[in-house]
């Protein structure tokens, strides 16, 4: 099942999106319980999709794809293992919302990633139990100012500033339909009217598995319903400039597209 | 005026605490508006003080005291300027609540710091205007596993795990009573029944002023009411072990004390 959040002429609501991605059926509560339909239904083209979750935090695992570690850090993953960083709730935007780049954030790159959305409050979850605490999966673009990332040392500003956390288009709850060890991840960048596929990788390049990441993250942090865990970016990240459009695509979920603007 | 949050036999509420720190008068709303008293009043010894704010995020400025940069990073502040990191809402605990150290978090140190609490949603605030967006000041103990901090590179886990963000005892809103360029900050560690003053510094050691930090932080992050900005730790941080008790003291605010336990 696909849960989205939509802006309608009657206000904001969570909704169930059909598999064709054409209609949204409003629900009374949140995506964390069985859906209670209100009876309101919208054509998706008549509403605006918002970020499908309102996380209290995004816990992200960095350096989780060997190919990306090599391209960005010029080192082997063996010498530079995965690390954890946090993106705050205020960086989250939905599908279609602009990524706004201020003057001081130079070298801003996209990073298309699989994201998991927690469904229950949890701590100290075993790797093998990860699906029991996760409501579903979605896509995150871990937008990063590569210059600020290295200048600051800490990644909070480079990756956490307003609009640097596009999430969507919806939460897919049917985890069994995915082979998480063989899931394609692509990112297509449109620049000057020309679209190129920049990221074209697969979750089989992950260093830590999703279960291992859940166990690692929940050993330190209580995760709350709606909280997002980003699972790392594969290789192929590249600079975006105002006027560009970036679309991240994961089969079985869909695609998350955002224009790039000057803040 | 001092705003606290208290657990009473009748539930949780925000309250105005008197200057002697002996009584709590319950208010109907939050600390972000003029207080509307409910008429309920408690002796402070009959209730439990909780963290006085429920931040959506803590944005912290690290390496903001030259003496602390020298002791931890073995470099001069000139070569290692201040940096920004994020502590998530789930690390926050109140006065008296235990700091719980898991086995894998070694070298856990206290860092007593002045914290500001934002009062309005804001972005791009000028340094000279900082008091207009801040509701008040409080104390934060930026608890840090020094080993994880250097092992991970990113500080999210070392400084952001559950219970590593004690805040309190209350929010002091009368900013005019402070000289923020000459404010003593102390931390007293009790170990094996013996109390020693470990941090004994002053905000006159800050590299960036509070206003400069507000301008820097709000250039990247929208700050929301209740969000906390930590202003950096002075020198004197030291390792705490289970059984210890750590108390951070700032004149004009009060003191924030927490026991240390094994998680």
Task: Write a structural description.
Two copies of one chain form a homodimer. With 263 residues, chain A is mainly beta. Chain A folds into two domains: 2-49, FAH (SH3 type barrels, Roll), CATH 2.30.30; 57-262, Fumarylacetoacetate hydrolase, domain 2, CATH 3.90.850.10. Chain A has four helices and 19 strands. In chain A, the strands form three sheets. In chain A, strands 1, 2, 3, 4, 5, 6, 7, 8, 11, 12, 14 and 17 form a twelve-stranded mixed beta sheet that branches. In chain A, a hairpin with a 3-residue loop joins strand 18 (245-250) and strand 19. Chains A and B meet through strand 6, strand 7 and helix 3 of A and strand 6, strand 7 and helix 3 of B.
Write the layout of secondary structure elements.
Two copies of one chain form a homodimer.
Chain A: E1 2-8, E2 11-17, E3 23-27, E4 37-43, E5 48-50, E6 57-62, H1 66-73, E7 83-88, E8 92-93, E9 99-101, E10 108-109, E11 112-118, E12 134-141, E13 144-145, H2 146-152, H3 156-160, E14 165-172, E15 184-191, E16 194-202, H4 210-218, E17 228-230, E18 245-250, E19 254-262
Domain Fumarylacetoacetase-like C-terminal (chains A, B): 57-260
Pfam families (chains A, B): FAA_hydrolase (PF01557), Rv2993c-like_N (PF10370)
Family (chains A, B): Belongs to the FAH family.
């Amino acid at each position: 099942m696909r849960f989205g959040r939509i802006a309608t002429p009657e206000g904001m609501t969570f909704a169930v999106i059909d598999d064709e991605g054409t209609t949204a059926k409003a629900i009374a509560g949140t995506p964390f319980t069985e859906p209670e339909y209100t009876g309101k239904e919208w054509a998706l083209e008549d509403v605006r999709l918002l970020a499908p979750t309102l996380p209290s935090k995004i816990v992200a695992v960095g350096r989780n794809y060997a190919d990306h570690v090599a391209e960005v850090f010029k080192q082997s993953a063996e010498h530079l293992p995965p690390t954890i960083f946090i993106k705050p709730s205020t960086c989250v935007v939905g599908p279609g919302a602009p990524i706004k780049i201020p003057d001081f954030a130079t070298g801003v790159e996209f990073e298309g990633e699989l994201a998991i959305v927690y469904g229950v409050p949890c701590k100290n979850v075993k790797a093998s139990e990860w699906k029991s605490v996760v409501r579903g999966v979605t896509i995150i673009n871990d937008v990063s100012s590569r210059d600020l990332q290295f200048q600051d040392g800490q990644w909070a500003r480079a990756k956490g500033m307003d609009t640097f956390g596009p999430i969507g288009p919806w939460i897919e709850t049917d985890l069994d339909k995915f082979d998480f060890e063989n899931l394609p991840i692509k990112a297509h960048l449109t620049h000057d009217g020309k679209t190129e596929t920049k990221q074209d990788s697969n979750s089989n390049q992950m260093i830590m598995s999703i279960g291992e990441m859940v166990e690692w993250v929940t050993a330190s942090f209580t995760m709350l319903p709606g909280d997002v865990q980003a699972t790392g970016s594969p290789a192929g990240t590249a600079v975006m400039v105002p006027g560009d459009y970036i679309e991240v695509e994961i089969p079985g979920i869909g695609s998350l597209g955002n224009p790039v603007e000057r803040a």
